[in-house]
Amino acid sequence: MALKLPVLDKNFYLPDIQELEVYSQNCSFEIEFEQIGNQLWLKSDLPKEKPIGIEVDETIERHLSYFKKSSLYKENLAKALGIKPGYRPRVLDLTGGLLGDSLMMLAMGCEVTTLERHPVVSFLIQSALHAATHPLLKNLTFHPKDALSFLQQSEDFEVIYFDPMFEDANQKAGAKKEMRIFREMIGSDEDAVQVFEMARSRALRRVVVKRPRLSRPLVNGDCLQFEGKSTRYDSYLNVK
Fold this sequence. Notes:
- By secondary structure, the protein is α/β, with parallel strands linked by helices.
- It has helices at residues 18-26, 56-69, 76-81, 100-107, 119-131, 147-153, 177-186, 192-202, and strands at 3-4, 31-36, 39-42, 90-93, 111-115, 140-143, 157-162, 203-212, 224-227, 231-237.
């Protein structure tokens, strides 16, 4: 199917589209972007739905504002990462997605390296990051790469964070728009267990796996579990 980009000013930043073009030629649906402000957003497949994009600066500020009112040390994600007063780990986020977790970890004070292998999502991330100006972004590094290949060549990280996408009997059928579109576009992470095992060999302190609250663990083994209303973090300690 076709890849559709808006007519852009010659000075507008356009991420590399080579992989995106190859992907669009082999997928069964149209991929269309539109310009909103200084970045590109993905149009939804339903006409009444808003486009999908990442408001980087606004998201970071929203997290910072929340942490001024409520201690971040009470957050399940912070507990799972091992965050303590005076300690913030260097985190590798293997599955960037729309940067929701990466930006939260950044607002928590962590230095974050984020990966994303899917060309459509990677394209959105690069466009959004280029348009963003928040000073905390100096602590965020993005690589449009596959987790397995990156882990084979990278340095070790204190904490590796993993949010795999695959079908689960305990997940609600009515997923929000982004997840519905991404599940159709990206599908399941069939290599999730393999990625986890590789991560275990490269994490200095722990691997944290994000799961729906009622879902089964990704792998068998002892872990600390931090449960919220809909999300659970499984933290595998002493993995190296």
